[in-house]
Amino acid sequence: MRNTKNILIYSLLALSIAGCSKKLDETNKNPNATENAQPDYLLTAAIKTSVDAYWGTTNNMNSSLLFIQHWAKIQYTEEDRYVFSNSSFASLWSTLYSTTINNLNVLSKLGLQQDNKNYQGVALTLRSWAFLLLTDAYGDIPYSQAGNIKAYVTPVYDRQQDVYIGLLADLATAQSLLDPAGKTIAGDVIYSGDITRWKKFANALRLRIALRIADRDADKARIVVNEVKSQPDLFFSGTGDIAKLTYLSSPNQNPVNALFETRDDYRVSKSIIDKLFDLNDPRLAIYANKTQTTTPQEYIGVPNGLTNSDASNLGFAKTSKPGAYFQAAQAPAVIFSEAEFLFDLAEAAARGYTADGAADLYAQAIMASFKQYGLTNEAATAYLAQPKVAYDATDFRKSIGEQKWIALFGQGLEAFAEWRRLDNPVLPAAVAGVLNGDIPKRFIYPGTEQSLNGDNYKAAVANQGADLLTTKLWFDVK
């Protein structure tokens, strides 16, 4: 009898505990969070978050656009003089790892569960782009163990060359998954669900990476280039193929527009304004605004890396802000343009990877850049007729490097990578820079990596070199 009573008591106690546990579970639920992630919401969020990071203040306007001398600072010039700490570059790292890559991994799993390979392919393509941004900026990064915190709390850093090879394989897989005749996707704010264009974007990224490794592994680069070349129906062929996010009005406006709503720290760099003047380049009126106070030259750039007092002495009203095109709330944030794709094909031809005409592709690339900004073919033809613009077959790095630098205006991270790789144009160091006449060659790792992933951080530094702005990355040969 006593045993029966004890069993009854324990049973009631267990039910009571279970009930409390259930109530606690319900209490700890976020009423604003969905129990089941929806792929369309995940896709939109991943795109918006990563593009904001790419075009935003920390990784673009306040760093890479200054390094590449598209923009300069007119006040608070510390960043333009390369004064950074190990917390300065944490944004790109934390945003892409904790938000973008995690969301895309979940999206890929949902695509598998729902038997929708197009979600998987799009997720893998965007994830590859995110990893590419990370390795181009920092060098060796967590890749093979990244995004799986349950298995790897402290992921190893993969060598940059291994990351590039892994991404080429990932993008080839994405290509095989993407099927225009397959299931539809939603939440796509880049291509509105056009899977053929996603296949083009995946191919374009493969071409970009092939050239990243070209100075180190020409054989692999040639193989990838010719794999891309074997699919001419998947070439970028018009402005509709440009990978971009077109913003809306506030609060979902372009990051440049959002910045200039409250601040006035930035101007167009003297380096690019002088170059555009020298080449009689009609893109000058798009890239820069005229000075607020009338000046003889109308467009006045700011030298990079002035002291605060010297910058201030130039005058806010007597220097050129970025053009109205870039300051518009709905300005598109470009990820990959047709012009870049054509410049890549031109370089592949110049390197002898293909039998195409490099000069013709170079001209097509410039014409595509003009078209991107609403300029006419006639204007592009006149521009190309100038001896200073004509393609120089004896120095493709100079011709392509200079024109690609111009065409990538506003895309600081990509322009920074290409400038390091092609070593053109030749840029002056910051006037009052703190790097002994040098220009940054990379982002330094976030300081949190030293405390949270110290052993793997130390191994990466031992392999790659000191964790300094001036340490060259594997792909940056010269």
UniProtKB/TrEMBL annotation:
Q: Which SUPFAM superfamilies match?
A: TPR-like
Q: Origin, by domain of life? A: Bacteria
Output the InterPro entries linked to this UniProt entry: SusD-like_2, TPR-like_helical_dom_sf
Q: What is this protein called?
A: SusD/RagB family nutrient-binding outer membrane lipoprotein
Recorded source organism is Flavihumibacter solisilvae
